[in-house]
Amino acid sequence: MTEDEKQTRRRRGPTRPALGALCGVLAGFAALAVAELVSAAVRPQAGPVVAVGGAAIDRTPPAVKDWAIRNFGTNDKLMLQLGILAVLTLFAALLGMVALRFRYIGVAGVLLLGVVGAVAATSRPDSAGPSDALPSAVGAVAAAVLLYLLVGRLSPRASSTEDGHGPDWDRRGFVIAATAAAAASAGAGALGRTLNAAGGRDAAAFRDKVVLPAPASAAPAVARGAQVRIPGVSPFVTPNASFYRVDTALVVPKLDAAAWRLRIHGKGVTRPLTLTFDALLRRGLVERDITLTCVSNEVGGPYVGNARWIGVRLADLLAECGVRPPSKGGPADQLVARSVDGMTIGSPVEEVMDGRDALLALGMNGGPLPFAHGFPVRMVVPGLYGYVSACKWIKDIELTTFDAYDPYWVRRGWARQAPVKTQSRIDTPKPFARPRAGTVMVAGVAWAQHRGIEKVELRVDDGPWQEARLAAADSRDTWRQWSLPWRATKGGHTLTVRATDRTGQVQTARRTRTIPDGASGHHSVVVTVD
């Protein structure tokens, strides 16, 4: 290549395929921005990224979901959204390059992506109807028009040549159009986000004004000595900000509690009931310390937390509606709770009404529920994994049977019933820690909700089980801390823990996956003593 040819190429700037890809990306950006703006007039959950993400979650195999939770934790939804944006960017760039040669095919591809988003939005369990298709549809039309116009600016102008190297394209017009499109898209997206956030601010303002009345049945003070004073051990009461969150909601619902309603109906309900938030506040509230556990928690995992909940006894409400448990002749054995985000959770009626503190919770750790944890109202049932008990943003309770209806997670391979398994965890020392030889405090937590923890034992390498010192018990529905001073000798060691609940059941050593009804096995950590 001669020097003149090199200079000519530099003057020509980016190649046509690169400019076509840029057109596609700008069109994709416009689609998302316009869709964000339109979703402010419909609802935030109707946006294409949220809709497609929700559809992807619904169709993802349980093993993949578990992998995502295990590797990304509570950031799994963020990673999914980033992945969707990356794929959309790639498709948009490819469509832009196609549109250079086949403009109408590229435009049709953009419109097809809009159809995918619209179908995803209207097929979600929480869909509000055909209006949910609007953000994706309008965004796709805007993107198609923009792609058509931008690619048109790249068309050769036969009447113009540059240094004898053939037809040229409208550089100035393209730069102006692309810059204007990017600026307009950014403005539309920012306005859409602002308007969507404004709706949440009204709900937040209402929540900030909520004053929980003093409970008719207050929780006793946390038992003295329930918290061991050893660095690294989880606090007995988990702060709201640290409490685990595992759900399928890509957008946290921010509900207007003043407009919120809960309907109780179904099989065996002789007196259907519709409740408001204020009506629940006026009832006799109970306050209890209850530990919750996610079924996706691996052995030794972080998805367990303890909080002080305040709410209304669910059994009292069901009895008021005429519901009887199966053991007393009731026709319904399953309670299906429905959330505003379309989630369905099935709980056994017998356990909900057996005397345990199953609650419709309104408060957590002294204040109203945080939005991320279910404001205005959620279910809390001690002794059951969250996927069969802990419905957040609840709006409907239907009494039915296990044979008649399979809730969300059961349809995806999880067990219909899932009592929490007896588990224990080493919090300190951490895996691969390098403590010094001498006395090392080994400590952690154990849980067996609604049965309680009777004993915790620690084993060093293949040695005998040694009984640990238990912290004071708060209740059988909360976890229990434990500790053991270990005379550590130099070298590598494996520390293993197991618990025994108050029924005498010893935590099994058999390792199982979280699917279908929770993980089992002993938690171990490997350390090297210096």
Structure report:
By secondary structure, the protein is α+β, with helices and mostly antiparallel strands. It is built from eleven helices and 20 strands. The strands form five sheets. A five-stranded mixed β-sheet has the order 4-3-12-7-8. The N and C termini lie far apart (65 Å).
Q: What brief labels describe this structure?
A:
single chain; 530 residues; alpha+beta; 20 strands; 22% strand; globular
Apparent shape: globular
Measured on Cα atoms, how large is the radius of gyration?
29 Å
Helix content: 25-40%
Largest sheet: 5 strands, mixed
Note the gap between the termini. 65 Å
**Unreliable runs:** 160-166
Based on DSSP secondary structure assignment, what is the total number of beta strands?
20
- Put simply, the count of helices is 11
Physical arrangement of strands within the biggest beta sheet? 4-3-12-7-8
What proportion of the residues form beta strands (DSSP E)? 15-25%
Backbone structural class: alpha+beta
> Averaged pLDDT, please?
92
